[in-house]
Every structure is written in structure tokens, then in C-alpha cells.
Amino acid sequence: MPKRTDIHKVLIIGSGPIIIGQACEFDYSGTQACKALRKLGYEIVLVNSNPATIMTDPETADVTYIEPLNVNRLEQIIAKERPDALLPNLGGQSGLNLCAELNQKGILDKYNVKVIGVQVDAIERGEDRIEFKKTMDKLGIEMARSEVAYSVEEALAIADKLSYPVVLRPAYTMGGAGGGLVYNKEELKTVCARGLQASLVGQVLVEESILGWEELELEVVRDAENNIITVCFIENIDPLGVHTGDSFCSAPMLTISEECQKRLQEQAYKIVESVQVIGGTNVQFAHDPVSDRIIVIEINPRTSRSSALASKATGFPIALVSAMLASGLTLKDIPCGKYGTLDKYVPDGDYVVIKFARWAFEKFKGVEDKLGTQMRAVGEVMSIGKTYKEAFQKAIRSLETGRYGLGHAKDFDSMTKKELLQLLITPSSERHFIMYEALRKGATVEEIYDLTKVKAYFIEQMKELVEEEEELMKSKGSLPPDDLLTTAKKDGFSDKYLSKILEIPEEDIRNKRISLGVCEAWEGVHVSGTENSAYYYSTYNAPDKNPVTSDKPKIMILGGGPNRIGQGIEFDYCCVHAAIALKHLGFETIIVNCNPETVSTDYDTSDKLYFEPLTLEDVLSIYNKEKPLGVIAQFGGQTPLNLAAELEKNGVKILGTSPSVIDLAEDRDQFRAMMDKLEIPMPESGMATTVDEAVSIAEQIGYPVMVRPSYVLGGRGMEVVYDNDSMEEYMNAAVGVTPDRPILIDRFLNHAMECEADAISDGTNAFVPAVMEHIELAGVHSGDSACIIPSVHISPDNVKTIKEYTKRIAEEMHVKGLMNMQYAIENGKVYVLEANPRASRTVPLVSKVCNIRMVPLATDIITSELTGRPSPVVGLKEQNIPNYGVKEAAFPFNMFQEVDPVLGPEMRSTGEVLGLSHSYGEAFFKAQEAVQSTLPLEGTVLISVNAKDRNEVVEVAKSFAGDGFKIVATGHTYELIHEAGIPAEKVKKLYEGRPNILDMITNGDIQLIINSPVGKDSVHDDSYLRKAAIKGKVPYMTTIAAAKATADGIHYVKTHASTEVKSLQELHSEICDL
């Protein structure tokens, strides 16, 4: 069937900021769809609010809008662009929900927009719990016994019928948001109320618990002629009860019979045929190994987290193919080197793929490390091996949690069998590490199965690894016998882990196994729909089948590993751009990475992809095999930087800024000496290793001080300390963080504006496109602070100083490539906070707002010693940028309801959005709208601030009053506002009686909250306010700086007619040279 000719212009909706449950897999699928459809000759209009993606680059689509994802903005874009068709199933849950809303409001009909890929009624059949159940009943496919509730009372009645425990699932949500497993009536009341609120349609499904059953997934693709293929069978190793996003899983299925897989496949085909999805669908089943009952849990009629995994596990590019099928092609029309055409595809790889999740519990004080039906993971890794053991151990060392094997995690090896079994009762992120130690202490396979319901096969495999490790440890202090070492390598034990348990240098183990001929070999995974493209994985269990070319000079790029807080998609963005730039410069590119969600692990981003852990053993093996001219380490965040020095020691050439310079920037003493030499001011500071040292330094500098361990990304372990007691407390707790590295103590700049500058430097000249101004004051991590670019409130003199300092530092450090500088301005004086001579998370932001290709420019500089090309820095001109971008962070506090959502020096955001406008007020307003926190234009604002902020609160109140808001305020804040002659009403705090502010928030009487926390002694006293704001979805500001920006934004939007939406390409055309 040929492609459709009745459509020419297609609108694609992206998934917005990265949040728990919706991460960079949608950047990957959206980018692939743009590629596929443009190749077929369609014009693409893309809408997404996330600036950190490849998808929102001006080159990816024909027209790009970085706008909030809601019906009003989309209608403006549809009215302006007049697309013929909308492709909604590549933007995650956000894309599907928006498509459904646009349809309900009649907007699609009004502008005559057809939906392709998935029918609007199919979204309802797949997402609406009642519709889906009707469809399943018609097909005779069993589901968990359940009923739908629209109120807490109805839910209680249904639960009594089904008997506890029951699972609650709200309709139209993802990542299990708002749902959960409840064991009694009280829990049901709490969770159900939350679920009804989270659901688009106020509908919650109450279903029987199938805890402990096997959870199995099929990834299926269907075309318009009803050809259906199964791309991948996925077996969750954690049983039902743990969300699939948190669950450890394998592909293919390792313990499920052929017969059972056939039954699953038949049911899956019936379902997608009846729902009529075109493209990829994920179908989740539960199977009871005791009664052999199969029930369908749910379907996702869209590309999902699992489809990114399935794509990378099998080499079948689901999103790319889905987009082609949506345009009217069929599977028979797409040729494939291995199967002829794609309708003949079968998943037949002879390898095992493991996915393991990465969490961030340590970032959220007060959150219990416990896994359930609501997703908690912030990222994941995928590993490929010949055997289950090999792939499993590779996955563990890919996680970058400082663990290179399963044993000796935390203090589990010092616990008794009884204590360990006790820990296994509730699933947690440590479950498999605890199982390992329990087996070592003599727990039986049955005992562990009874507690965890993890299948015996997987526990047996783990038990064999434990036994093997015990045998190896008999050789402690020397190399083990050759046969043992060889078997250990085949079973996936890493050099580094062996060196740890045997207490001998890693190098000795590496040299020994190489002398025995035990080396990594590589096999390819064929990419379906291509002639002969493949990507590679290493194994110690097969001969090498990895052809190496040498016709072009090669360069290797190290990726960023799993997504996590502090190191997200921005670094993947940099790696992808580096690969594209290197191709243009005539190099063959090699990428090494292990994150299945990203564009960098797409087969055609680089010339050759190695799907491997970023550890010394794996990277060195590839380096020795491929012999590239050099390795680029500065684009993948902290991950490759931590490897750089070791690689250099082993003869690897690191291109760009040298590892010693990167160390210099991390070493406070050396860096301070350099600043003194350049006569650039820094806040007073010191280093301490003991409590007494810390206290005396802090007393010299003067409280408050900022304390942190050296060498961290994302501000781990950073705190502002106000007095000696807290300092002692911090030092005592922090001993574990840095055994051999001191704690850094800096004077905390009070009420200082923080700002940052990204620079491109060639070692002698540096260029700064723009200075970014943080809205939150110093003390809030730069990744969490909203920021404005170009800056608004920094004086021209200070901007000049910042650019000047940045250039001087870049030149002094001989930075080649990218550098990020953090500054604070206190009373008009600029202080340097830190230098990061590498790509930072603001690179995509600066690139998009200033229309400058930072990564390609940096890549040109990094490779100039090989190409002899002149430096591009000299030709870069200062530009006049007439539009402002405001970046706002997206936080996972709705998933962690028990956490106080207050901002500090430790980073806690998972993603970000960008608001663009010629007025910074409107840009701020749009950024808030994009993180689902739309600012009100009327109503009541609650103001309650701490003593530090009281002198500034009056001007904020004046602005709100002038814009017609009613003001309510507490205690001292009320008195100040009242004295200034601004009408306000006094309200009670929680402990002052009733009705109080909590009652008002709960009743929906408040539209906006301005509340700065009261500080250390009474932090508990007002956190209920911020938690209530999240629960009631009321926009809240926790700093006076954000409150000012909010007042400005509201004022601007109220006093100006709404401006027309402009595409990124239009905004870029307005930038001119100064």
C-alpha cells in the first residue's frame, strides 16, 4: 500500500519535560518519527516544551514550537500552521491525552485535522478503564476482576466484594500516578481520593490483587492491512506488585513455556486488532504459575518506555516503523536485509538482554525506599550478554552506583540470615543485592521464593554466582587458578569486582586474563528494516564477530550512562551533536553507552554503536579493538570524566580539555590559587576532615556556610549550615560520603543573585553567547533554579565582568571545548563559585535561545589538532537576542507526597521546560504553564514569608493588589502588608486554630501561594503548606525572588493582549549581530 497523499503537513506532539514515568524514550521516538516522515516527503510541525531534547532542535522538524503542552496553545499553533494530520502516539501519555482533549473540544474537526497512527476512539478503548473492559469481554479475554468507582464510597463497597488487598488504578495517567495497592479501608480512602484527583476523568478502577503472579509484556506492531508481528517478549523478573518501570526484566522470556508464549501472542493480536492501533503497542499480561490463568492487565496504544527497550533489545526501530505505518505504508513495503520484508520478522536473537532501573531515593529525605505500583525509577540501563549471568552482571556495573558486582553492597554482608530475610519482605531498590547476601548466609531458594516470588530459576542462577564467588575468595591476596578466572569472566564477573574481592590490583587481573587469551569478543545485533546495519555487545562466551574498518580516521565518544537526577538527557544531547559534527568533519564515529532510552543509542546516530557499560574494562577493550585517534570525554557528564584519568594512564588519548585541567577545577586549593593569581574574587572558604576543623573554619568565615563533599555532580550531600550544632551533625553524617576527600566549606552568600555562563574556548580565546540569570537566589542548586537567558536584572557592567572573567579563566586553564562557569553577585560584586571545564546541562538551552551550535563548534575545536582547521571562536560575534527564554525545573514531588518540596543546594528536579517570549514576564508565565503550574490571573493569593524576606514582601503584595488579587497573609507578614496600606486579610497558621490556611487550601479558596520556609528551627512548622499546595495543584513559590517574577509575569499577561505563538525558526530569524 503506498503512502497517503491526502496529507502533506503533520503535527507531532512531544511529551514535555522529563518526569518519573516519562523520560527520554520519547525524545528518541519523536526524533525517529520526524526522520521517517521527512524522508517520505511530509512537512513536520513539532510541539514540545522540553528544551533539552534533540527533538526540539531547529533542524529536526520543519517548524518547531517550544510551547507549553495544553489545548489553548495547541489550538493557536493549529490555527496558524493548519496541519492536515496529527500523530499523537509518540509523545507518551501527554501526547495521547492532548489528542483526546483536542478531539473532545471539537478543535480537530474545526480545523479539519485527521488523526493518524491511532484512532481517537482507540485511545478511549485503550485508556478508559470501562471501555477497555467491554472490549476484552467481547473478545473473551480474561481481566482481573474489577469495577470502576467515581467516589471513595463506591470504591469501599467494591473492595468489600473483592476482598483486600486491592489495587487502585486511575484512568488516563501514567507511571502508576495516584494509584497503589491497599490492604485496608483507611489506606483505600487516602489513595482513592488521590487517584480520583489524578485522573483526567475522575475515574478509578478497583481490582483484585494478583500480587506475586508473573508479569509478562509483549511489544506488538500492526499495520493498516492487519499484518501483526511481535517485536519482543519481555519477562519481568520481579513479580507483579512492582511497577514495570521499576522492575528488573529480561528479553527474551527465560522461564515461560513456548505454549504459554503462544497463548499470550494470540491474545495480544486479538486485542490490537480490535483496538485498531497502527504502529507499536505494548500489552501487559499477568500469568499465575499455579493455576495457569492468564489475564490482561493493560495496553498502551503508543510507543512507551517498554518500546524503547524492545527496540534496543531486538534492533527493531519501533518508533521509526510506527511513523512509516501511520503514513499508510505496510510492513510488506519495508525491506529488510535479514527477513526480506518486515512482515516476516520474528524475534530470534541468540543473546539475553537485561534491563535494570536506577533510583534516586537518596535525594529525597523522608522517602522510604520501597517499590510498589507507583513508579519510582528515574532512569534505567540495558545490557546484552550471551548468558543470563553475563548480562545480569553487566547490567549491575552499568548502573554507576559504585557497585561492580552483586555482593558486599552497603553493609548487607555483615547482617545475619534472619535480618536479611526480614529485609526481603518488602520490595526495595536493594532487593537483589540483599538476596545475594542472604544466599551467601545459607538461605535456601525456597525461603527466598516464598518472600519475593522471584522465580526459582533466577534465584538458582544467583546462587551459582554466590558459590563461584566464595570459591574465588579462597585465593584472596593472589590471582585465582586459571580455570576459575576463565569461568568467572564467562559468568560476567568484572575485573574491578574481582580486584575488590581478591584484594589485588585490577591491572593484574586484566594482564593475567589477556595472557590466557580471555578477552572481550563482540557480536552484532542486526537492525531490522536496514540492509546490514548492526550495533555491538561484548561477551566472553563467543568468538569475535566484529568487523573493524580502517578507511576513515575514527573518534570515540563516551556517553552518559543511565538517566539520573543531576545527569540527564542534556548530556545525551551533547553526545549526539558531537557524533553528527564529527561525521561532517570526515571522521568515523563510535559511541559507547548503555542507556536504552536515548537518541545516542539509536543505531544511526553514530557509525558504530557499542551497547556497553562505561567502565574501564569495557571502554579499554573497545579502544584496543577499534584503535581510534582519540576519545572525547567532555560531553557525557560526570560518567566519562570519572574514567578519563584512568584511560589516559592506559595510553588512551583524551581529546579536548585534558583530565588534569578537569581535576584542577575540582581541587579547591589549586583552583583558589589560580583565582588569586588572576585576581578574581571567590567566597572565603576552607577544607576540613574532622568536626573540630570544620567548626573552627566556619567560625572564622562566619555562618551561614555552604558545606559539600569534593567531586560531586547534582549537588549530592550539599547543605547550608547555620550554626555549630548543625555543623557537627553534618560532619558526623558525612563521613560515609568521602573517606579520603575533605569536606569543602564556603561562605554562603546571603541574598546574592546567582548566574552562570557557558563558554566555547579554543585554549587561547573564549566566547560567551549569553549570561543566564537564576531567579532563585544563591543556595538553590543551579539545576533546580528557574533561570532567564539572556539576563534581565544584571547590570551591563556585571555582565561585562562575567564575560571577562570567564574568558580569562578559560584561557588560563587552556580549556579546549565547552566550559560552564557559576557566579554569584553580592552587593554589585561578582564572585566565582565554580568552574566546570566540560559540557553542562545548560548547553541545549543556550544553543536554542541564542541560535548557536555550541557542541558542533566545540567538536571542531577539540579535533583541530587532527584536522588542522582554524579555530571558529575568532569568528563568533556578540549578538542582540530580542527574545527571552525562561527555564523552569520539573520536580517529582507529586510522586513523593511525603517530601517537603522546598529547594536547596541538593538537586531534585528530573527535567525542565522552556518558555519563550519577547517579554521576560510572559516567558516566565509560559514556563510555569509548561510545568502544569499555570499562574492565576485573578483570585486569592496567600503570602507567608520568613523574617529574611519581610522587607521585600511589600512590593510583591503591592503588585498583586494592583492586579486585582485578594491578599490573605499570616502573622508578621500580614502586619507589614497592612502597615503599607495594602488591603489584606489575616489568616491563622495551622497551630493557631481554625479555620486556618490548610482549610482554605483544601477547600480551593486559594489560587496562589507565596511561602518562604522559616529556616532550621521551625522547618517542620510550615512544610504542610507546601505539601498541601502540591496535593491541591495550587501554584506555589518558595522564594521571594520567584514571587517577584510571578508578580511580573501575571502583570504582563494581564496588561497585554495575548501574543501570537512564534516558532523557534521565526524567533531565531530575529537575532542579529551587534
Describe the structure.
With 1074 residues, the protein is α/β, with parallel strands linked by helices. The chain contains 37 helices and 44 strands. The strands form 10 sheets. Strands 30, 31, 32, 33, 34, 35, 37 and 38 form an 8-stranded antiparallel sheet that branches. Helix 22 links the parallel strand 24 (630-632) and strand 25. Helix 7 packs across helix 8 (185-198) and helix 18 (495-502) crosses helix 19 (506-515).
Map the helices and strands.
Elements: E1 9-13, H1 25-39, E2 43-47, E3 63-65, H2 71-81, E4 85-87, H3 92-104, H4 107-110, E5 114-115, H5 120-127, H6 129-139, E6 146-149, H7 152-162, E7 166-170, E8 180-182, H8 185-198, E9 204-208, E10 214-222, E11 228-236, E12 249-251, H9 258-275, E13 279-287, E14 294-300, H10 305-314, H11 318-326, E15 335-336, E16 340-341, E17 352-358, E18 379-385, H12 388-398, H13 417-423, H14 431-440, H15 445-452, H16 456-472, H17 482-490, H18 495-502, H19 506-515, E19 521-526, E20 534-539, E21 554-558, H20 569-584, E22 588-593, E23 608-611, H21 616-626, E24 630-632, H22 638-649, E25 654-655, H23 659-666, H24 668-678, E26 685-688, H25 691-701, E27 705-709, E28 719-721, H26 724-734, E29 743-747, E30 753-762, E31 766-767, E32 771-777, E33 787-789, H27 796-812, E34 816-826, E35 829-836, H28 843-850, H29 854-862, H30 864-867, E36 879-880, E37 884-890, E38 911-917, H31 920-930, E39 940-944, H32 950-962, E40 966-970, H33 971-979, E41 985-987, H34 997-1002, E42 1008-1011, H35 1019-1031, E43 1036-1037, H36 1040-1055, H37 1064-1069, ...
Helix pairs in contact: 1-11, 5-6, 7-8, 13-14, 14-16, 15-16, 18-19, 20-29, 25-26, 31-36, 32-33, 32-36
